C-alpha cells in the first residue's frame, strides 16, 4: 500500500466538504476549490472523524502512483482553503519596479515598454517594496495557480549570472559567473 496514499487527510471544522463521485468541493475561510480526480481512485469523506481517505481499485503501479498523488492533492486543497499558499519574489535591477493597476500587474524590467500581466482570479499580489529590490508576494488558496503565476512573472526576466539582475524567488541562490578579467601584461 502507498505510504502517502493510505494516510487520511484531517479536515478542520471550518471547512465544508462535498464529495460527489470523483469530484471534491472544499469551501473554507481562504476560498473555494473544486477538483476532479481520476475515476479509478475513490474518495471518501468520513463525517464523524472529519477525515478524507483515497482508495485505489487495484495494485497496479499506475494506480499506486495515482493513489499517493490524489491524497497529496487533497491535502494541498485542505491547506489552501484554511491557511493559503504564498510565494515571495524579488526584482533586482536599477530602474526595475512593480505596481498593481486594477486587475493587472505592471512590471518595468528594463525593456522599452512595461510588461502587463493580468492577475488571475483567486490570486492576490502584494507589493511590499515597489523599487530596487522590489518585493512581491503572490498568495492564494490554489497551490498550482500560485506557483504557475509566480513562474510566469519570473519568466519575464530570469536572473542573469553576472550581476544577478532579474526576477528571482526569495532565498533563491543564483550561480554567479566571473566577468571578463583584464590583464596588465603585454603579450
Mind explaining what this structure looks like?
With 187 residues, the protein is of the alpha+beta class. It has 2 domains: 9-82, Outer Surface Protein A, domain 3 (Alpha-Beta Complex), CATH 3.90.930; 85-169, Outer Surface Protein A, domain 3. The chain has 2 helices and 13 strands. The protein has helices spanning 61-82, 143-155; strands at 9-10, 16-20, 23-28, 31-36, 41-46, 51-56, 85-92, 97-101, 104-108, 115-118, 123-129, 134-140, 166-169. The strands form 4 sheets. A 4-stranded antiparallel sheet has the order 11-12-7-13, covered by helices on one side. Strands 1-6-5 form a 3-stranded antiparallel sheet. A hairpin with a 2-residue loop joins strand 8 and strand 9 (104-108). The radius of gyration is 22 Å and the shape is elongated.
List keywords for this structure.
single chain; 187 residues; alpha+beta; Outer Surface Protein A, domain 3; 2 domains; four-stranded antiparallel β-sheet; three-stranded antiparallel β-sheet; 19% helix
Rg, alpha carbons: 22 Å
Widest beta sheet: strand line-up: 11-12-7-13
End-to-end Cα distance, whole Å, is: 70 Å
> How many distinct folded domains?
2
CATH fold-level label of the largest domain: Outer Surface Protein A, domain 3
Q: Which structural category fits the helices and strands?
A: alpha+beta
Instruction: Give average pLDDT, whole number.
Output: 91
CATH homology superfamily name of the largest domain: Ribosomal protein L6
Outline the biggest β-sheet. Answer: 4 strands, antiparallel
